Structure formats: structure tokens, C-alpha cells
Amino acid sequence: MPTTKKKHKRKVDVVVVSDIHLGTYGSRAKELLNYLKTIEPKILILNGDIIDIWQFKKSYFPKPHMKVIKYITSLVTKGTEVYYITGNHDEMLRKFVGFQIGNFQLVNKLVLELDGKKAWFFHGDVFDVTMQHSKWLAKLGGVGYDLLIMINTLVNWISEKILGRGRISFSKKIKNSVKSAVKHINNFEDTAADIAFLNEYDYVICGHIHQPQHRTIVNDKNQSVEYLNSGDWIENLTALEYHKKKWKIYHYQEDEIAQKLNPTDHDHENDLGKADLKNKDLFQQLMQEMNVIDKKLQP
Questions:
Q1: Which residues does the UniProt record annotate as the domain Calcineurin-like phosphoesterase (predicted)?
Q2: Domain extents for the chain?
Q3: Contacts of 192 (CB under 8 A, 6+ apart)
Q4: Pure H helices in 79-178
Q5: Three-state DSSP class for 94?
């Protein structure tokens, strides 16, 4: 009987993904799963807003979303170091910071030494003025953003399947055209860099603003720091990869190998599929996954 040839996976020292927003209609869980199945990371950093606890009242958590969690669990049991950094949409997990089981750790921020250089990882909501002073407004904005993504999903289906055209991103067009949004992003990046200078970090790695970026920032003392943002898995479908002492932004839309993976490996449900899990069911499944890790790591 012929054996199936094992697919080659890219070895990567560090992979950073953020703002997946599992549990929302806009989360591109299938694409993320495709990406994860093409790589073999030594370290995987989940940099906040992985599970969107803010939106749980909708009781929307389809199978592809749970499959992402299960696949990450399998990486832990196979030896990948996984750090889950809390964000604002999954802030409820902050009460469990310090939890560790095997190669999995739950943290608020992280500092790693990469080839003799210090890298500072955190989600970034601490710099968001809206988050600090008007959390209810931020949550309301999250609901509005989710609605916009739902409409955008329908428009893209018509654009791709019926009109034969490419995808359109409403929110990206809005963010790129509104001066206040551009100023907010620039202020966010500069603030992160300023703190990195004070702490003598070489790299500062964030998420939160859904804006993939990799640039060098230099201050008036001629100090420099590399600022990186992992983007999101709602619209940009991006990640950060560190390998052989270099950082790069990964773009799913440029990855033909990941895009060619058989979608039946995941699930037949579309982005607006019915809910499979309610809140308590989801947490029960998460605890089951933690038990799986514990049992597999026991001697």
C-alpha cells in the first residue's frame, strides 16, 4: 500500500500571531490553520486578542475556530514553546496570568533574548487611550467593527464568486484615509519605541492596532529600535517570523503553498456558519485541551 508523502514544513525560530479574534464572524481561522500547518516553529507567541471574549454573548464559536486551538495544543505537546500574551479582547484571562503547563505559559508581557538581542513582546492595548478611559466605548466599537466585517464578508463573496474580482477591505480603506486614525497609529508606534529605548530593548513587538509593520525608529539620541506589529487574522492575514537573526512580515496572500492546502482538512462551514459552542461549552473544551497537554507530558 503506497504511503502518503509527508509535507515539508518550514522551520522558523519564532512566530508571532495576534488579533485572531476567534469567536467572531470575521476571524479567518481556516487560513490561519493553513499557515500553521506549513511551519515548524521553535517558539510560537500568541500576542493577544486570540479568543474574543468580548463577543461571547453571540454564542458563536464554529468548529474551525476550535480546530485552531486544538492544533496549537498539538504544537505544545510536540515541543514548541507557546506563550499566550493577554490582550484587551481576552482580558478575562489576565486573572490566570502565571499559569504554566509544559511548554505553555500565560503572560501579560514577555522579554526574550534572541541571538544576543532583547525582544519585548506585549499586546499594546495599554497605550490605547480609549481602552484606558472608556472601555464601554471600545467594546461598542468592537461590535461595530464586527458588523462591518460581516458586511464586508458578504461583499467579498459577491466580488470573488460572482464578479470575479479581488477582495475589498472597508476598514483598511477607512483607517488609511482618516487622518486621525493614521495619527493614532503613528503615536502608538512612537510610544512603544520610547519605552523600548528606556529599557534598552532591541526589538519591540506589538499587535492590537491591526496594522502590520516593520520599521526602524531612531530617537534624538541616535538610539534605534526595531518596531514590529504582527497585524491580524481578520483582514491583513499576517504574522511575524524571526529566523536566522532576521525578522520579516509573513503575508498569507503571498503564500501559495498554504493557500493550496485542501480546505476539507478543516471544515465545510463558511464564515457565517451557525454557532457550535456556547460560553460554558467553550471553556469546558479549553480545559479539556489543557488536560490533554498535561497527560501527554506526564512520564
A1: 14-212
A2: 10-297
A3: 124, 127, 204, 206, 227
A4: 129-133, 135-157, 170-177
A5: helix
Nearest Cα neighbor of 60 from 36, 34, 29 is 29
Distance separating alpha carbons of residues 134 and 31, to the nearest angstrom: 33
The verdict on pTM exceeding 0.85 is no
Q: Which residue has the cell 480609549?
A: 130
DSSP assigned state of 126: G
**Selected residue with higher pLDDT from 203 and 101:** 203
CATH domain 10-297 topology: Purple Acid Phosphatase; chain A, domain 2 (3.60.21)
Rounded CA-CA distance 275/77 in Å is 28
- With CA atoms as reference, report the closest residue to 149 among 252, 259, 58, 71: 58
| Pairwise CA distance, residues 133 & 129, whole Å | 6
Instruction: Spell out the alpha helix ranges (H) of 25-169.
Output: 29-36, 63-77, 129-133, 135-157
Cα distances (angstroms) measured from residue 172 to each of 85, 88, 145, 177, 292: 25, 21, 11, 8, 39
Task: Name the 3-class secondary structure at 217.
Answer: strand
Specify whether the backbone of 93 is left (phi greater than 0), alpha (psi in -120 to 50) or beta: alpha
Give the distance, in angstroms, between the CA of residue 202 and the centroid of all CA atoms in the same chain: 22
d(CA 251, CA 231): 10
| Cα–chain center distance at 142 | 16
Q: Nearest to residue 172, comparing CAs of 219, 234, 115?
A: 234
The values of phi and psi at residue 255, to 5°, are -100, 95
Chain mean pLDDT for the chain: 78
Q: Could you identify the residue written with the cell 534605534?
A: 224
- Residues 47-76 have pLDDT tens digits of 999 998 876 655 678 889 999 999 999 999
Give 86-122 pLDDT, tens digit per residue: 988 787 888 889 999 889 999 999 999 999 999 999 9
